[in-house]
Each structure stands twice: as structure tokens, then as C-alpha cells.
């Protein structure tokens, strides 16, 4: 059958009146306050079940009420759920878990960890919890947000991942799969181009994304669905919607492409309505699941898109998706010991797993969809001023960027700690240079400083340990091409003048 015809059949199904913006059972828009409480209850049912039955294992097995390790052996669900606790307003439990993690989690173990999954879940979870810990009432050390125990744990976990390879065969440089699309395999790449551009204020990343976006729209988009195409010929290889692709409307909303985002979102929402969840693969022209891909592991992506789009439009249809998600997850997947992965959306059979992203992402995005005044949605009208040993930081003003496991990062903290470190490296480097020059030139002797070899300035925080110091030097060297305070071609004396508050050149 020619492809166009197949698509039209798919569209016919998508356009049935039942599928678009239908009112709730009682005809009114969902009540956010009611659904906030429902989502909270959902969280605690799953979270308490994990603690009772599965901790310290990575994940809960909800059908047998026990636990198992999945991505390592890091009490993954606890780390992944930590910042969700704060978003739901539970500071006491957040504080307790921070203690538990510091006492119990050990990254010095021999396991086969997935680089990608460990990075987004463990490193991302710890980083986010570190940045939120002051808000959660945890007593933070003097160098926070540029240092702290959770940050050190995140660093340790990240360093463990570094020498490990990944699945990619980088030696041949050949494309193994020649299908191009927006889903599995590339989804987080596109997501991070946009989010990285925002977080790091990097125009190059955004330019890259916009270039890809043009090709994606030219070759893979058909009637606001996105398909898989043969990357050289442009012919459709798979007229399939993958549930992982449901992040796309959210990403479009981040670049301001609201109308396209909303149209694609509504397409995907029809699939949710058809099954009460998103099958891993959905054959668009056939309007049905794909064999062996009928499961729904309670993924967040469509809800995530609804949250972004609701922020942008206030369209109540988006709350309806939230309502449908709460109702159907509770109806289909809730069991005595938590929420179980749906193995098959056709008959609602269950699997004995509750993925950690259910508490990290699905519940979090649902709650944020229904909680318009959550601190995460801050529009800059309030902020905290934090005095660090390096200077003043403005934090918590909003604009949080979620990593691909929904762990929010405050871009201001990144800016603050990076700026201060660059300045510190500049100063340290100049001091080294100064003393090396002083030793070479006798007329400098005893003029400005007391004698003795130069010591790095003692400051609290992560820069203190020798290995970090070396790392800082490495990064400093890399940074030297675009230094903040000095120009490599400037003579030493004028560099000193720039930093005149540190010491004066008396030669
Ligand atoms: C916080 O979470 C703990 C553990 O689930 C629970 O016992 C406690 O009641 C919660 N507190 C609030 C304020 O929700
Ligand atoms: C990790 O995987 C390798 C290769 O598959 C295997 O030999 C090794 O025993 C595994 N290690 C652990 C701790 O599971
Ligand atoms: C997409 O299509 C437009 C208009 O047909 C064309 O100008 C543009 O070069 C195409 N872009 C890519 C990346 O193929
Ligand atoms: C920002 O948020 C505050 C508090 O929610 C609200 O009063 C204010 O109108 C918002 N400002 C803008 C520009 O949206
Ligand atoms: C100081 O002298 C040493 C050895 O003579 C030389 O390697 C170094 O580059 C000199 N430093 C400066 C800043 O001139």
C-alpha cells in the first residue's frame, strides 16, 4: 500500500471527534488541587513500598514485594526520587535521605554499570539534590553551592564512569543503523542540544539543533507525526511512533514552536486515549501496537511535554492528559506493593518492575503539571542571595533545566561556581607566575611579600584535594584560550594591573 494512503488511514483514526480535547467525565476541566493530592498519594504508595520492601536494592519489584539491582547497586530509586520529595514539599524526608545516602552509598564497587543510565540517574540525581539541599533545610557547608558532600558523591560517581566505554563502535565510524528519526538512540542528543544551549548559553549548540530540526521537519514529519526514514534516500522505513519520542513537543515548546508542538502532542494524546498508556511502538497507519513492543513501563515523556506546553499555553487539554494519566496508571498498574510496568497494553498484563524513573520523572512531571506555583516554576520574581567564600551568588530564581531523568539544575548555580573558579584559577596562575619571576629577578626580593615557597590559597571546597587541584589546572589550561581577566598577549605587568587589588608591581 502506498505510504500516503497508510498515513491517511492513521489520520482518520486520529481525527475521530472522541479524541480531541474531550471534556472530563463530568464535563469540566480537571481540578488541579484534587490531582495534586492524587499524585502525592501515588508517590507515597510507591516510595514507601520501595523503602519497606526493596531498599537498599536499586529498584522495587512490585509483584513480589521485594527488590533487585538493575543499573548498578546504588539504591538507585532512592537517589532518583530524592528531588521529587522536595518538589512535593517533604523536607524532613529529604534531609533523612541525604544522611542515609552519605552513610550507605558506596561507588567503590565492582559492577557493570551503564554509563548513560548511571550518569543521568545517579550523577544527575545527586547534583540536583546538592543544589536543592539548602532549600530543603539541609545545613550546607561554607563553599555551597560550589562544594558539598552530595556534589563530591556526584563527582566520585562520575569519575568512576569515565574510563568505561559505551555501546558505540567509534573505530569504524560507520552508521550501523541507517534509520533517521527523533526517538530511541538520538532522543537525548537532540534534547541536550537545546537544553545545553540554554544552560550553558551556548549559541553553537542551538545552531546545531536548528540545523537538525530543519532536516527533521523536511524529511521525517508527516501530518505532525514524526516517522523513521532511510537516512540517504529519505524514504520512510518505519511509519512508527515510539513512546520515547513523546518528549518532542516539550522540546519544541522550549524553542518557542508552540503551534507545531501542540499539534504533535494531540496526535500522541490520541494514542494514549486508545490504550490508557503509550505503547513502546505504535504503527501509525495501522493505528495499533507493534509486535513485542506493546508495553508501557510508566514512562514520563508525554506528561513531560504536557507540563511544558501547559506552562506555555494554559490549554486545559493538557490537564486532561494529566488526569487521564493519573486515572489510568492507578487503574491499570497499581498493586499492593507499588506500581508495576505494564507488559502489554492490549490486555493490561503486568511485569514485576517499577523503574526508578517512575518516581524521578513520571510523578514529578505530573505534580508540576498540576502545581502552577511550585518553586520550580519560579519566573524570577523571587530569588535567594548566597554568600560563598568566592563571592555572592543569586540562586533559585527559576529557569531550571531538567536533565533527561528530570533532575532540575539551577543554571545560576552553574554560572556562579564556574565564574568564581575561573577567577580563582586566574589569580592562582598569576601568583605562580609572579613568584617564579620573583625568584629569577633579585630586585624583587622581600619587596612585596614575606618569604617562603608559594602555597595555593587555602579555601574550603572541592578545589582543596590535590587531584581536584590538578584537574582545575587542566581545565584552566583549556580555558586559557578565552580567559576572563587576561589576554595572553598582554605583558605581565599590565596583567598585574588588571588584578591590582591582589598585589602591585613595584618594579
Ligand atoms: C515525608 O515522607 C515520609 C516517608 O514517606 C512520610 O512518613 C512523611 O509523612 C512525609 N511528610 C510529609 C510532610 O509529607
Ligand atoms: C561484567 O561483565 C563482564 C563481561 O560480560 C563479566 O566478565 C564480569 O563478570 C561482569 N562483572 C560483574 C561484577 O558483574
Ligand atoms: C528543507 O526544505 C527547504 C524548503 O524546501 C529547503 O530550503 C531546505 O534547504 C531544506 N533543508 C534541509 C536541511 O534539507
Ligand atoms: C511571576 O510570578 C509571580 C508569582 O507567581 C506572579 O505574581 C507574577 O505575575 C509573575 N510575573 C510574570 C511576568 O509572569
Ligand atoms: C625563571 O627561570 C627558569 C629557569 O631559569 C625558567 O625556566 C622560567 O621560565 C623563568 N620564569 C620566568 C617567568 O621568566
TrEMBL record:
Ranges where the record places region Disordered: 446-481
Signal peptide: 1-21
Record EC number: 3.2.1.-
Family: Belongs to the glycosyl hydrolase 47 family.
Cited PANTHER family: ER DEGRADATION-ENHANCING ALPHA-MANNOSIDASE-LIKE PROTEIN 2 (PTHR45679:SF6)
Pfam families to which the protein is assigned, alphabetical: Glyco_hydro_47 (PF01532)
Residues annotated as binding Ca(2+): 404
Cellular localization per UniProt: Endoplasmic reticulum
Protein name: alpha-1,2-Mannosidase
Source species: Colobus angolensis palliatus (Peters' Angolan colobus)
Amino acid at each position: 500500500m502506498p505510504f500516503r494512503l497508510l498515513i491517511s488511514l492513521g489520520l482518520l483514526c486520529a481525527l475521530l471527534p472522541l479524541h480531541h480535547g474531550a471534556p472530563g467525565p463530568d464535563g469540566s476541566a480537571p481540578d488541579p488541587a484534587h490531582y495534586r493530592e492524587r499524585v502525592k498519594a501515588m508517590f507515597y504508595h510507591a516510595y514507601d513500598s520501595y523503602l519497606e520492601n526493596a531498599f537498599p536494592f536499586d529498584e522495587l519489584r512490585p509483584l513480589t514485594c521485594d527488590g533487585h539491582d538493575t543499573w548498578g547497586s546504588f539504591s538507585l530509586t532512592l537517589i532518583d526520587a530524592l528531588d521529587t520529595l522536595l518538589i512535593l514539599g517533604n523536607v524532613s524526608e529529604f534531609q533523612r535521605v541525604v544522611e542515609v545516602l552519605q552513610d550507605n552509598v558506596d561507588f567503590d564497587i565492582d559492577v557493570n554499570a551503564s554509563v548513560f543510565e548511571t550518569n543521568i540517574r545517579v550523577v544527575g540525581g545527586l547534583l540536583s539534590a546538592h543544589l536543592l539541599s539548602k532549600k530543603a533545610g539541609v545545613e550546607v557547608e561554607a563553599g555551597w553551592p560550589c562544594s558539598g558532600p552530595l556534589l563530591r558523591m556526584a563527582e566520585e560517581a562520575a569519575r568512576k564512569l569515565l574510563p568505561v566505554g559505551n555501546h558505540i563502535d567509534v573505530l569504524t565510524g560507520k552508521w550501523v543503523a541507517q534509520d533517521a528519526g527523533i526517538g530511541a538512540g538520538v532522543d537525548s542528543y537532540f534534547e541536550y542540544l537545546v537544553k545545553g544551549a540554554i544552560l550553558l548559553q551556548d549559541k553553537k549548540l542551538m545552531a546545531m539543533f536548528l540545523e537538525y530540526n530543519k532536516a527533521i521537519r523536511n524529511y521525517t514529519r508527516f501530518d505532525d507525526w514524526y516517522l523513521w526514514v532511510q537516512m540517504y534516500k529519505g524514504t520512510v522505513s518505519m511509519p512508527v511512533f515510539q513512546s520515547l519520542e513523546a518528549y518532542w513537543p516539550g522540546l519544541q515548546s522550549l524553542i518557542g514552536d508552540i503551534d507545531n508542538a501542540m499539534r504533535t502532542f494531540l496526535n500522541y494524546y490520541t494514542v494514549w486515549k486508545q490504550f490508557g498508556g503509550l505503547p513502546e511502538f505504535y504503527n501509525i497507519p495501522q493505528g495499533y501496537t507493534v509486535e513485542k513492543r506493546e508495553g508501557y513501563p510508566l514512562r514520563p515523556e508525554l506528561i513531560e511535554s504536557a507540563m511544558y506546553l501547559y506552562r506555555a499555553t494554559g490549554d486545559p487539554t493538557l490537564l486532561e492528559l494529566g488526569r487521564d494519566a493519573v486515572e489510568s496508571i492507578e487503574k491499570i498498574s497499581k498493586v499492593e506493593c507499588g506500581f508495576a510496568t505494564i507488559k502489554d497494553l492490549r490486555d493490561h498484563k503486568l511485569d514485576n518492575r517499577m523503574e526508578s524513573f517512575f518516581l524521578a520523572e513520571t510523578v514529578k512531571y505530573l505534580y508540576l503539571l498540576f502545581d502552577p506555583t511550585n518553586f520550580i516554576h519560579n519566573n524570577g520574581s523571587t530569588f535567594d542571595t548566597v554568600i560563598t567564600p568566592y563571592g555572592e551568588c543569586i540562586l533559585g530564581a527559576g529557569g531550571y533545566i531538567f536533565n533527561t531523568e528530570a533532575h532540575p539544575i539551577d543554571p545560576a548555580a552553574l554560572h556562579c561556581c564556574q565564574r568564581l573558579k575561573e577567577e580563582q584559577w586566574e589569580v592562582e596562575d598569576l601568583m605562580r607566575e609572579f613568584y617564579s619571576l620573583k625568584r629569577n629577578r633579585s630586585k624583587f626580593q622581600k619587596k612585596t611579600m614575606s618569604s617562603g615557597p608559594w602555597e595555593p590559597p587555602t579555601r574550603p571546597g572541592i578545589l582543596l584535594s590535590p587531584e581536584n587541584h590538578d584537574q582545575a589546572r587542566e581545565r584552566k589550561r583549556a580555558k586559557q584560550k578565552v580567559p576572563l581577566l587576561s589576554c595572553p598577549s598582554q605583558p605581565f605587568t599590565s596583567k598585574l594591573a588588571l588584578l591590582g587589588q591582589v598585589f602591585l608591581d613595584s618594579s
